[in-house]
What does this fold into?
Amino acid sequence: MNNPAKVVVIGPGLIAKGAHIPHYQKDPRTEVVAVSSHSMASAKEAAEETGVPGYYDDPVQMLEAEKPDLVSVCSPNASHFGDVMAALKAGCHVLCEKPPGVSPLEAVEMEQAAKASGKHLLYGFQNRFNPASIVLKRAVEAGELGFIYHVNVTAMRRRGIPSWGSYTDRAENGGGPLMDVGVHMIDLAMYLTGFPKPVEVMGVTHRRLGHKPGVGLLGAWDPKSFQVEDLATGLIRFENGMSMSIQTSYAANIGKDEHLNVELLGDRGGAETNPFILYQEKYGALFDAKPAYLDESFESDSHARQIRHFIDLVTGKAKPVNVPREGTAIQQIIEALYLSASSKQSVSLAE
Ligand SMILES: NC(=O)c1ccc[n+]([C@@H]2O[C@H](COP(=O)([O-])OP(=O)(O)OC[C@H]3O[C@@H](n4cnc5c(N)ncnc54)[C@H](O)[C@@H]3O)[C@@H](O)[C@H]2O)c1
It folds into this structure.
């Protein structure tokens, strides 16, 4: 690309203003030309705050008028599907924030639309760019852990109920912590283990704290409009024999404000992502291995790295770190966990 690629952003809220817009603006290969929001007032305010020239209250109008090359979809979860489909139809490459829509049906349609359009659709699973994830992926691929037979996925918050946006609205968010923080760590676990096929899923959800007033570590949320679970847990059995246990919360009576971690148990070694450590048995002894030095290629800001990757991808300088089919697989797991929780029965995904 000789001229900077034109970027528009749909949903100019926290993540757009904190990560997407500034990282595009720092990269000479891209120029953010406009934002669109649900109201002209909020679009204008965000455009002025971020120094973006254009603003709209309709994403389709924006796509028609600005003819962008790239689109970041940062709108509330329930809008991801419509925004991604509109952006692909307009011939754009798309970076869509997690989750990949709010159901497997939506994820499948987005996957098919991306394939038909020939454009890239990348999901905002930036944890794959954390230094620990990069090193661990290499270690897993080199066979350091052997066969990974069990995974513990943790995305727990003590009182981390988001007080902004639509994170506690069932329809707008598609679910609670499972659809929000849980989806990140499930994605990371699936990525690190090579996306094995899930065959049986058991999930349980609880709402014990969110609907009552309490201390808010992410601001004061409204307990009266809290419609989602505050804790979800589950167990998944995979075709290759692996099992995965998941626990994720917005609020729980635990000792850490937030704990995001993927723990891999393999027959040659184990590992955790946060803090990053490898566990091995060698020479008749048990070892804990931690990286002593990570060079500058391990940029710690995973959002910055993700935006750079997206630009590299669309300029043909990189292969995608995630593909739409993986977003569909994640949504199938989440739907099965919710279905199992509501039916109080395990759900079979075997064909
Ligand atoms: N990858 C991450 O770590 C991460 C972190 C935070 C949020 N997110 C995701 O980003 C998305 C936005 O989250 P946020 O925290 O920035 O929320 P937010 O509420 O701060 O921002 C959402 C923005 O979208 C606008 N909006 C509302 N309805 C809209 C619509 N129908 N069409 C277009 N815009 C609309 C709002 O005015 C606001 O500007 C969510 O999908 C969330 O899951 C990802």
Q: What stands out?
A: The pocket of nicotinamide-adenine-dinucleotide is lined by residues 10-16, 37-38, 42, 74-77, 79, 97-98, 124, 126, 164-165, 180 (CB under 6 Å). The CA atoms of residues 141 and 194 lie 9 Å apart. The chain has two domains: 5-124+304-321, 128-292. The chain has a mean pLDDT of 97.
